[in-house]
């Protein structure tokens, strides 16, 4: 049912995605069309690829070697300038590009980068855009990209030039379909723009094509606002910078409101389910009173009561200082990181699959002691949600829980208790926010616009140089664009395996927030001051010209600084 | 209870509002500090005030004349340049300023404008900022404003320089308190920055001081993001421009997301309870598929079923075109404009005050037929909310109803029905948003920053020229700043009376969306195209430099254009 819907959805997106009309653009959109996109100097002149040493895997190299017999061990490659002129241009290449998964600002610029590379560095090449994500590859739905078609999307947000989709190429039949499309279009190469799953899929496709002795090569590009696809060679996934700056603008505004009004606690849930990079970056940009980092909550095996108590403690201390307001950041995936919540949900799924929920609550006797305790601790609305709203598989829908509202309710209860005990004399009013969709499709920042263009240009260079199974990697991002490094990293080198249904599956491990890493350490060193003092920063709206317009996000700067 | 809370809240806001630390400002905040604030040319040289003809009232002039025996009929005044030098500077004026009601971007610049006027055009004047709104006047809580104190707030959002509050000066005791404060501080004048209620209050205070033969004069300034305090002489309230641009940025992002993803209908509720100016302006900026204007819903006596059907019809037509996505704007006050909802709520308040809600639903028999019908039509969650959540007076809390979620639920039900009837074959997924607090405290746009500074500077000029009971009015806003007109409009001329508790109360009528006005007419002429075609515009983040940075909002341009 869910799958059927999602296929329908892709069809909907693919079919009649109407082309943009630059004639109805806003002044800012129009001004962005001709915003110059500087290239790293190595991409400006003649260059050659230099291979590094053979690569291994992020974990279980033996299993990865078995899964990728043709690609495992291949070196990463770096572009270096050469003296010679690119007089013998590659000719007549046929390249495909696909957007995979959720939107991230800058995707259109990756496509522009590939296109411009082909225009400027090859003769008579063609770029096909597969429509609606990987399903477009399987069904051979595509559009031939032309300068006129691409132009209105330059430096614009969204993925609507060719739209995206969440399908995967998984079954033998689906690989066969992809093969047929590659043959039909006589593809020399394919660029897959996506997150960890999509890049894993890209690598499987590269392996498949190589094994079939096909000429079609596959290059990945790191995309996700969540920021959880990165490693030493790929220092950032695109879209993270823009999304965090959009959320931080809103958080900064809400902070100014909180301090002006003096009577609201704003509980802000931020997109980012699997990792808490967005919340951490927004915290570094805005200095909230509290920010939860899921990875820390998990590492410390914190309970929901711990989380509630931490908030309540800060609220009580602030009340003593006369501050009955504040701003609290909550990663979307917070409760996924709380072990006892996972346990409760697992037990509920089991019980609800077999039993009815009787009104007298006899079913609760099947819960383990700790889970029953937690269940009783939850607000009534959340209890009902857990029992009533289930997905087509009968499972509790954790993603539907509005954590920010749940926490407001639990904090209210705890504060009332403390008030009765004489330990709290303030007043509390919670306001809930969820910042998500607003950030996925904004106009890309100067950083994301330039970074994406370089990623696309590099992907073109890698494909034309005969590479496959690499992810486009642009580094040295804290230096001026001129000095950015460009290359491709072996996708297999990012991989580990997971055991699923008795089989090893390759996965690019999600990059979680490192508790020893520079961004978290900086946050941890400052949060106690932020909790009680008011050190709010309002980053303001993203600027494209003038002060602040070329700033890079804190996470990237701190990580690269720590590496240096 | 509610009142007690609100007083507590104000106390909280007032007490320990910590001063800003420009040292922790973001780059954009810092860059705004020295953003130049051009003055209308008439404020740059020597000027004199020229009185217009005697004024009347917006309605019931006889009653207004009785309520304001000292002020009624006084002329509005315009500033005109004179040849003479302002060699005889007024000296030693003592002026107070207060922020009243909800935040609006630009409030700090009004204060900067007053301050700079006093610095530049008088000798040795003092400006007091009353803390936490009108309560600060009554309790004589104030801070003496100095250049160092004011500087970090220049062009910054929020009201936290002196904070605001929602108290009113109403009872004889409260007027006496205000009098005592004015005497104690030896005030020559007071500037009240607020909305319709606050300016009404300002006028009552002006009348009171005049009647008491006190020297303290009172000048108002038009503030509200809602845009519902305006008239011919006062073409805009400040904050509306910035707030609408912030909301429109988010709406534009969500639109790009909708068209990229192809599977969500985004229901966006926008702040603005009493009037729908914000929704109208955001619609003109972004071209949503649907936008409801409360004033039209009321004029056409539409029902909730009408509203639901309109949405459902558009969704069905779009599905036939292959579009299973869209964006719908809903003013916060929508259901306040639906007559049958008002009727139902009135009946519920009556019934719930006297009866218990029995589980068998016998209480429902007391509802009138139409109200019962409507009640049964509502989603279960809303029914429960209506019955369970009541304010301290026992009344249904209409403001807590999340209209966007209610409409999603009702549209789902209607679509399922049509699906069964074979009239709809699309798929629908609703996403709800509320954009409110994010917009009240953003960094003011160049327009709001300049407009507010001129309003403040003009208020200083009016006070120093001996005027009272006027609202600072800056006009010709669609021309370059140089050509803006400056003056003061008699507050009594904006007033009408309302009958409350058997007495006439003066009110500045809220300016509702005029269905014959140019902004609504433009919207009405385009909405059918927007509904089915995709004409989305993404205004992008507010820019302070470069393209778009000096744009004025559509509402103002259209209204002024229609006047011209």
Automatic annotation (TrEMBL), chains A, B:
Q: Which residues form the Phosphofructokinase domain?
A: 94-459
| Residues involved in substrate binding | 224-226, 263-264, 271-273, 332, 437-440
GO BP, one annotated term: fructose 6-phosphate metabolic process
The UniProt note on how this protein's activity is regulated states:
Allosterically activated by fructose 2,6-bisphosphate.
UniProt keyword annotations, A-Z? Allosteric enzyme, Cytoplasm, Glycolysis, Kinase, Magnesium, Metal-binding, Transferase
| Protein location | Cytoplasm
Q: Provide GO CC annotations from the record.
A: cytoplasm
Site annotated as Important for catalytic activity and substrate specificity: where?
Answer: 197
The broad enzyme category this protein falls into is transferase
List of catalytic residues: 226
Q: What is its EC number?
A: 2.7.1.90
Q: Where is this region: Disordered?
A: 1-20
Give me the residues that bind Mg(2+), please.
196
Task: Enumerate the SUPFAM superfamilies for this protein.
Answer: Phosphofructokinase
Which pathway features in its UniProt record?
A: Carbohydrate degradation; glycolysis; D-glyceraldehyde 3-phosphate and glycerone phosphate from D-glucose: step 3/4
- The site feature described as Important for catalytic activity is recorded at 223
Query: Reaction(s) catalyzed by this protein?
Result: beta-D-fructose 6-phosphate + diphosphate = beta-D-fructose 1,6-bisphosphate + phosphate + H(+)
- Which of this chain's residues are annotated to bind diphosphate? 102
| Its job | Catalyzes the phosphorylation of D-fructose 6-phosphate, the first committing step of glycolysis. Uses inorganic phosphate (PPi) as phosphoryl donor instead of ATP like common ATP-dependent phosphofructokinases (ATP-PFKs), which renders the reaction reversible, and can thus function both in glycolysis and gluconeogenesis. Consistently, PPi-PFK can replace the enzymes of both the forward (ATP-PFK) and reverse (fructose-bisphosphatase (FBPase)) reactions. Catalytic subunit of pyrophosphate--fructose 6-phosphate 1-phosphotransferase. Catalyzes the phosphorylation of D-fructose 6-phosphate, the first committing step of glycolysis. Uses inorganic phosphate (PPi) as phosphoryl donor instead of ATP like common ATP-dependent phosphofructokinases (ATP-PFKs), which renders the reaction reversible, and can thus function both in glycolysis and gluconeogenesis.
Q: What family does this chain come from, according to its entry?
A: Belongs to the phosphofructokinase type A (PFKA) family. PPi-dependent PFK group II subfamily. Clade 'Long' sub-subfamily.
Q: How does it assemble?
A: Tetramer of two alpha (regulatory) and two beta (catalytic) chains.
How is this protein named in the record? Answer: Pyrophosphate--fructose 6-phosphate 1-phosphotransferase subunit beta
**Which species does the entry assign this protein to?**
Musa acuminata subsp. malaccensis (Wild banana)
């Amino acid at each position: 049912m869910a799958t059927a819907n999602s296929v329908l959805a892709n069809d909907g997106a693919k079919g009649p995605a109407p082309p943009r009309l630059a004639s109805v653009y806003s002044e800012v959109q129009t001004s962005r069309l001709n915003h110059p996109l500087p290239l790293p100097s190595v991409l400006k002149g003649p260059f050659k690829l230099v291979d590094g040493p053979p690569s291994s895997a992020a974990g279980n190299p033996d299993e990865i070697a078995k899964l990728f017999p043709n690609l495992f061990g291949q070196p990463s490659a770096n572009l270096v300038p050469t003296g010679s002129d690119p007089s013998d241009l590659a000719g007549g290449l046929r390249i495909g590009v696909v957007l995979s998964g959720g939107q991230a600002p800058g995707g259109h610029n990756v496509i522009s980068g590939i296109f411009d590379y082909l225009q400027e560095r090859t003769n008579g090449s063609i770029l096909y855009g597969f429509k609606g994500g990987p399903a477009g590859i399987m069904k051979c739905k595509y559009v031939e990209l032309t300068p006129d078609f691409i132009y209105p999307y330059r430096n614009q947000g969204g993925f609507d030039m060719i739209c995206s989709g969440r399908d995967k190429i998984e079954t033998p039949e689906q690989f066969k379909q992809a093969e047929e499309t590659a043959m039909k279009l006589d593809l020399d190469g394919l660029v897959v723009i996506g997150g960890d799953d999509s890049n894993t899929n890209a690598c499987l496709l590269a392996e498949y094509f190589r094994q079939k002795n096909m000429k079609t090569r596959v290059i990945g590009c790191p995309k996700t606002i969540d920021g959880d696809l990165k490693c030493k060679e790929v220092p950032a996934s695109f879209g993270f910078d823009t999304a965090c700056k959009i959320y931080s603008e809103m958080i900064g505004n809400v902070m100014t409101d909180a301090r002006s009004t003096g009577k609201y606690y704003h509980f802000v849930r931020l997109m980012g389910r699997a990792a808490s990079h967005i919340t951490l970056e927004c915290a570094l940009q805005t200095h909230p009173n509290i920010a939860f980092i899921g990875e820390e909550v998990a590492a410390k095996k914190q309970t929901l009561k711990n989380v509630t108590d931490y908030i309540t403690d800060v609220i009580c201390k602030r009340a003593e200082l006369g501050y009955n307001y504040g701003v609290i950041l909550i990663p979307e995936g917070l409760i996924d990181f709380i072990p006892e919540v996972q346990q409760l949900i697992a037990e509920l799924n089991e019980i609800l699959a077999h039993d009815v929920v009787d009104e007298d609550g006899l079913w609760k006797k099947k819960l383990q002691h700790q889970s029953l305790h937690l269940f009783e601790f939850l607000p009534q609305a959340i209890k009902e949600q857990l029992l009533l709203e289930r997905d087509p598989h009968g499972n509790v829908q954790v993603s539907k829980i509005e954590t920010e509202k749940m926490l407001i309710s639990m904090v209210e209860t705890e504060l009332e208790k403390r008030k009765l005990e004489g330990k709290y004399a303030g007043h509390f009013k919670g306001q809930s926010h969820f910042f998500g969709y607003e950030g996925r499709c904004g106009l890309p920042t100067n950083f994301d616009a330039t970074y994406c263009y370089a990623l696309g240009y590099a992907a073109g260079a890698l494909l034309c140089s005969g590479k496959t199974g690499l992810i486009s990697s642009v580094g040295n991002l804290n230096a001026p664009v001129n000095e950015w490094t460009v290359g491709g990293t072996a996708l297999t080198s990012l991989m580990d395996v997971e055991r699923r249904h008795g089989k090893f599956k390759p996965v690019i491990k999600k990059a979680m927030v490192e508790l020893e890493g520079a961004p978290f350490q900086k946050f941890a060193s400052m949060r106690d001051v932020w909790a009680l003092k008011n050190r709010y920063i309002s980053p303001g709206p993203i600027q494209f010209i003038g002060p602040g317009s070329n700033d890079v996000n804190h996470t990237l700067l701190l990580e690269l600084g720590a590496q240096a």
